[in-house]
């Protein structure tokens, strides 16, 4: 099933343009003024083209928080490919721009996001969604289990056995981008205080992704097959 995102299209495009604007300095320093302008314009066109192709995974799915940004990354990636840049160069740029995006979050909102992330309300919502995901109502959705952290060295965990990001990127012939997107979890964890420990991902060919969260713990992501400058 394909979502009808037309009613959200103006809002999605506006948000994407803001992301590109925040990354403008990085664009220019990485690719030069003239090329950066072309990349920005082409990325917007590519993003508009991709919006109708976004798989529907439910209107109130909390996992849209992790899925929709992948579409933005894909638009930039496809554009950089057209401009002759390698997957490695594009992946590094996407990682760096994601860092800029996360660092733009005001301190007060970071604290609020961390509070919500570890709240019982949010964790119960994720737990319910994990159960619903097992029904596989939406082909392009995340399929995962919620892991209770009681008597463990983490607050809660998520084990993904199917990844919406990987499935969408595979349909778009861009599965090589997936590990770079996975690495942006490192940024979110460090800035929002997730205390994420992860040892494997589907994007790196493993059978599942093992996320373990503990408030304010040092982030430790291992097992990636790619090389990035952090």
Largest sheet: 5 strands, mixed
Question: Residue share in helices?
Answer: 40-55%
Structural class: alpha+beta
Order of helices and strands: HHHHHHHEEHHEEE
Strands of the biggest beta sheet: in what spatial order? 1-2-4-3-5
The total of beta strands comes to 5
| Count of domains | 1
If you average the pLDDT, what whole number results?
A: 93
- Give the uncertain stretches in residue-range form: none
Overall 3D shape: globular
The end-to-end span amounts to: 38 Å
Number of helices: 9
Report the radius of gyration as a whole number of Å: 17 Å
Strand content: 5-15%
Summarize this entry quickly:
By secondary structure, the chain is α+β, with helices and mostly antiparallel strands. The protein is built from nine helices and five strands; from the N terminus they run αααααααββααβββ.
Characterise this structure.
The protein is an alpha+beta fold. The protein has one domain (6-221). Helices cover 54% and strands 10% of the residues. It is built from nine helices and five strands, in the order H-H-H-H-H-H-H-E-E-H-H-E-E-E. It has helices spanning 9-22, 24-31, 33-50, 64-82, 87-103, 107-117, 120-133, 164-171, 178-192; strands spanning 143-148, 156-162, 197-198, 209-213, 220-221. It has a five-stranded mixed beta sheet with strand order 1-2-4-3-5. A hairpin with a 7-residue loop joins strand 1 (143-148) and strand 2. The mean pLDDT is 93.
């Amino acid at each position: 099933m394909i979502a009808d995102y037309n009613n959200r299209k103006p809002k999605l495009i506006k948000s994407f343009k803001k992301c590109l604007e925040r990354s403008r300095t990085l664009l220019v320093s990485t690719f030069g003024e003239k090329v950066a302008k072309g990349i920005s314009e082409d990325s917007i066109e590519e993003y508009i083209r991709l919006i109708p192709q976004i798989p529907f995974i439910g209107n109130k799915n909390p996992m849209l928080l992790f899925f929709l940004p992948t579409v933005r990354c894909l638009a930039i990636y496809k554009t950089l490919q057209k401009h002759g840049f390698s997957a490695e160069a594009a992946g590094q740029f996407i990682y760096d721009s994601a860092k800029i995006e996360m660092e733009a979050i005001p301190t007060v909102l970071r604290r609020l996001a961390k509070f919500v992330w570890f709240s019982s309300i949010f964790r119960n919502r994720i737990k319910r969604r994990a159960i619903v995901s097992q029904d596989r109502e939406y082909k392009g959705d995340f399929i995962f289990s919620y892991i209770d952290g009681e008597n463990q060295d983490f607050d809660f965990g998520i084990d993904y056995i199917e990844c919406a990001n990987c499935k969408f990127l595979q349909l778009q012939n861009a599965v090589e981008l997936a590990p770079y997107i996975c690495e942006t979890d490192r940024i979110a964890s460090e800035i929002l205080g997730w205390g994420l420990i992860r040892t494997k991902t589907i994007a790196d060919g493993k059978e599942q992704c093992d996320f373990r969260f503990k408030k304010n713990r040092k982030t430790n992501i291992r097992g990636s097959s790619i090389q990035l400058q952090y």
